[in-house]
Amino acid sequence: MEYKKLTFDLYRFQLLPISQNIHDDMYIEKLSIDRLKEMKNEIFSEIICNLIKINHRTFDIIQKNIPIGGDWIAFKLGAKKHVEIGTTDLKKSTIDSWPHITVIINNNPQIQTIAISRNTKAFSSTSAVSKLLQRNLEHSLRARQLTMHIKPIFDKRDFWSVISRHEHEISSVKFELISPNMSNISKSLTIDLKTINEETNSHRTNVELNADRGANLELSEKNKVVSGLVEYAAQGGGNISIKVLGVRQKIQTNTEIKTLEIDEFTVDNLNQDGLFLLMERFIT
């Protein structure tokens, strides 16, 4: 039997202390900033697995957790929709429908990836689902002195493709970067965002490159500073917006999200062994 393929969009999440000056915590004895960072993924798992029911502001949601274990967390979210159907007496009737999506999270501190399946009958986009997750988790995470940032993962070649297509036409590039808590995705950075975060408590840092009026930027993959910023953003560390001379709207890199295809049978029978085979596609 041939199973339908489901397309998942890939996101990176990062967990950061709200402040570098933390206060006493009823949950963690002898809490320190280092201890909080050490326990961040354990706290996240506890919250999302045991405490949180996802709610939407405008329609009902049903949630079904999928037990997997290990670093994996998965659940389905069904959105209540009203569907109009024709009846045998040739009239119209409205019934409730619950189209759903699947969310698969790898909570390994060196991976921290979220895969969200596409289904526009349930949610307008996977980006809307990522924002829904962030909004629902925010209160409980803040109670534990943490905050969460979710950003799309994209292919860095998409950025360089835009630069190549618009050679001599790029007037500005803006990097909107989340302070890192994952050494494996920040190793390419020449700007020390981690120290900036620790010394100033900045969670979002913008780096903007601007050419003189009427001129263009000269961007090359050989430039280690620019390449490092692109690499980090592409790994889910932020977004890049590109301004082309003569074009009003900026080009955003976060619209070209990396995807993963999984067949319906695997999704309906998730387990650690099956997900382990997909691991390399989760690690970008």
What report would you give on this structure?
There is one protein chain. The chain has 284 residues and is an alpha+beta fold. The chain is 31% helix and 32% strand. The strands form three sheets. Strands 1, 2, 3, 6, 7, 8 and 13 form a seven-stranded antiparallel sheet that branches. Strands 10-9-11-12 form a four-stranded antiparallel sheet, with helices on one face. Strands 4-5 form a two-stranded antiparallel ribbon. The model has no long low-confidence stretch (mean pLDDT 87).
What about the largest sheet? Answer: 7 strands, antiparallel
Structural class: alpha+beta
- The shape, in one word, is globular
Radius of gyration: 21 Å
What average pLDDT do the residues reach?
A: 87
How many β-strands, per DSSP? 13
Percentage of residues in helical conformation: 25-40%
Series of H and E elements: EHEEEEEEHEHEHHEHEEEHHH
**Low-pLDDT segments, ≥5 res:** none
Strand content: 25-35%
Alpha plus pi helix count: 9
Cα-to-Cα separation, first versus last residue: 31 Å
Please sum up the structure shown:
With 284 residues, the protein is α+β, with helices and mostly antiparallel strands. Helix content is 31%, strand content 32%. The protein is built from 9 helices and 13 strands.
Please render the helix and strand layout as text.
Blueprint: E1 5-17, H1 33-51, E2 61-69, E3 72-79, E4 81-86, E5 92-97, E6 100-106, E7 113-117, H2 126-143, E8 146-152, H3 156-165, E9 170-178, H4 183-186, H5 193-200, E10 204-210, H6 224-237, E11 238-244, E12 251-252, E13 259-263, H7 264-268, H8 272-277, H9 279-282
Antiparallel strand pairs: 1-7, 1-8, 1-13, 2-3, 3-6, 4-5, 6-7, 9-10, 9-11, 11-12
